[in-house]
Description:
The complex is a heterodimer of chains A (255) and B (223). By secondary structure, chain A is of the alpha/beta class. Helices cover 39% and strands 24% of the residues of chain A. In chain A, a hairpin with a 2-residue loop joins strand 1 and strand 2. In chain A, helix 3 crosses helix 4, helix 3 runs parallel beside helix 5 and helix 5 runs parallel beside helix 6. The two termini of chain A are 28 Å apart. Chain B is built from 8 helices and no strands. At the A-B interface, helix 2, strand 6, helix 3 and helix 5 of A face helix 5 and helix 6 of B.
Amino acid sequence: MTDTIPILRIEHMTKWYGDKEVLKDASLSLNKGELKVLIGPSGGGKSTFLQCINFLIKPNRGRIWLDGREILRAKGKELYDYRQKVGMIFQDFNLFDHLTALHNVQIGLVRVKGLSRTEAKERAVLELDRVGLKSYMNQYPAELSGGQKQRVSIARALAMDPEIMLLDEPTSALDPELISEVLDVIRALRSNGMTMIMSTHHIGFASELADELIFLEDGSIVETGPPEKILYRAECARTREFCSKITEMYGNSSS
Amino acid sequence: MRELFFFQPDVVSALMKGLWVSVQLIAPSAVFGVIIGFTIGALRVYGNAFIKAVANGYVLIFRGFPLVVQLFIWYFGLPYIGIYLPPFVAAVLGFSLCSGAYQSEYVRGAFLSVKTGQTMAARALGFSNIKMILFVTLPQAFRRALPGCGNEIIYLIKYSSLAYMITCIELTGQGKIIASDSFRYTETFMVIGAVYLVLTSAAAWLLRRLEDRLHIPGFEQYG
């Protein structure tokens, strides 16, 4: 990587509810164009970690730097500006049910970025075209398949020109035959140089594209390393156990 | 002659005058009631603990006091602290505040029915709370609250008949005058009742049309 300053740096992120610690001292640094993948059992803290990164969950402790600038006040305009630069994709798509695909992509541009309707529409159509859904732009979420909904949500996030993207199990709610259409879009993002953190169970897909796998269990980062190391030469026994199980189940579904 | 009583010019004009006053009471009260209902409903869902407590207190009182008592307080009570409201204003105020309290309950339920994932998605895109409510949850809550709010408006049409208790002579008030002048209580109030039936049916039809107009695929599943 040519950049010396990481695009995103997270240090000692911790979150607890009452006396239950759901995220323990998680740190991570991401260079421009990198893809890091969070793996680990459900309930291990992957979603919490991702949602702490854009403050959908307020971490109890931890510091975040974007482009070398620390996010000091996660409030008001500074927070809204920061979130525009950090796109997020959810497991359940979370499209706005009352808006067509086009308006789902357009609304952030108009209401948050303050673009005119014509400019916003132009951009929204372009983004929908990029995920192959231009001809579906007048459909409502209820009229789209799961894979199409997820692609609209990716278009919606990309329209905001994010510097990084957080993808929280983007294919987990999809029928098996719809998964590949979403993975293809993510693959295209990767080759266009988008910086991403993704949580997934698709270990085959992850090992094909990721620069690094991060194994998260019980809220702690257990082990971090390049895919071939985590998958085949992991130092921690628990990592090895999880990886062999998950490879058996999901390993081949990347193609 | 007896059968033609309700066609006599003075009776007809008295009823029309009453009907006109009723409509003038109902229309602004319905609008204010919906506005108050959505404001209070949103505050009860998205406000902080203090705001929620204040909004809940408002609903507790205005839903808990009998409407006639509220009207008496506005019209007969306020003069004791030097505020004199004309009967019409007191009636609209009373109706709006009472209707708003009921409306807010339908609205609260409607806001709560918008899946939290959508509010997360809005915030993740950089929406402020206000913008998220205005552009993401309100348009959906409005559609879901509409049947309940319509129901409340139909109630309002009928309880507007209480305005004559504070000397705002609307349809029921005119009916009472006609009935006691002519001693034709049954016929008079049958006619008055029928006029209210026409009003409520017209309102129901309009609300139905509005629901159809605002219909979006995927919304029927939430009822």
